[in-house]
Amino acid sequence: MAKRMNTDLTLNTQTNSWEIEKMHKEYGPIVRISPYELHINDLEYYDELYVGSSRRSEKYPWTTKQFGPSTSVFATVGHELHRIRRAALAPFFSTQAVQRLEPCVQSVIDKLITRLHELQGTGKVVDILHVYCALTLDIISEYSFARAYGALDRDDFGKTCLGNGVSHRLARISPDVDLQYKNWTIPRGVPVSMTALLLHADPTFFPSPTSFSPDRWLSQTAKKLEHRYLVTFGKGSRMCIGMSLAYCELYLTLFAVFARSSRRDDAKFDSDEKRGEKDDEGKKEGGLELELWETGDRDVVVKRDFFNAVPELGTKGIRVVVK
Questions:
Q1: Is the pLDDT of residue 76 over 70?
Q2: Beta strand extents in 134-218 (DSSP E only)
Q3: Cβ neighbours for 241, distance < 8 A, ≥ 6 positions apart
Q4: Alpha-carbon torsion (12, 13, 17, 21), positive or negative
Q5: Would you state the pLDDT for residue 162?
Q6: What is the mean predicted confidence (pLDDT) over 99-126?
Q7: Where are the alpha helices (DSSP H) in the chain?
Q8: Residue 272 has what pLDDT?
Q9: For residue 225, what is the DSSP state?
Q10: Which of 19, 31, 274, 290 might form a disulfide with 320, Cβ 3.0–4.6 angstroms?
């Protein structure tokens, strides 16, 4: 049975995550997805599998082959070697380092705003995913090599796509001690994985998970939801090293593109004279309105697992017109 499941999953690598989801619905929160690997779909167990310094944790060698040479931090299997390699990079991505980098990030975002203003009123349709990926690529290349790749300078934004976040399962091995999940004892050395894409769709923790519901982050349980159950960047000793930089980009970009332009809407409640003044100010600082163009759910909903999340094949992206 396990061997047949493994064959089926291997032949459908693009949809593995959803095949695993079906298995969980039929068999429960823990399933065997190959002769060698287990998968758990339970957010309450996440902190136990993806631990910090409380015990040694290693990656599953079979899954790291897709990332090329094992000399990279991300593809490092062994616990001790990973700790050494990560320690060399961590200072460059600390909160303090990112704060020092903020002027650099802001300068690239300013270029983004300039490009969007150039598109304003032209009616030209652009894939906003390519736009934001070009922004991220220019920021990280400027920081890493002191020279931006220049994706924002290209007419098509380089058609860059860095993916929509990890959709694939992340396997871990406990080499020294057995793991205990409810009534199941998992022998040391057995690869165990979880999938954030499935965990974030669990209505037990995220009611109506596919609905746009900002109120969920304002409720009494919002802090627990964010710090314990939101695992976008992973957790433990191998969590995403670039989390602080990612949040920096996110906050500054959202403000630059949306918050500044909202001043025009706020002006509706002022006198005509003040409204005009704020309109001019808004247009100078931001004043952008992005309107979706022939974009529907099929262009957004994740349907393919290429390690990074990908929507249905054949879609033309999240297209917008800058008004």
A1: yes
A2: 170-173, 179-181, 184-186, 192-194
A3: 73, 86, 89, 90, 93
A4: positive
A5: 63
A6: 95
A7: 2-11, 16-27, 46-49, 61-64, 79-89, 95-119, 128-145, 196-199, 222-224, 243-254, 262-266, 272-285
A8: 39
A9: I
A10: 290
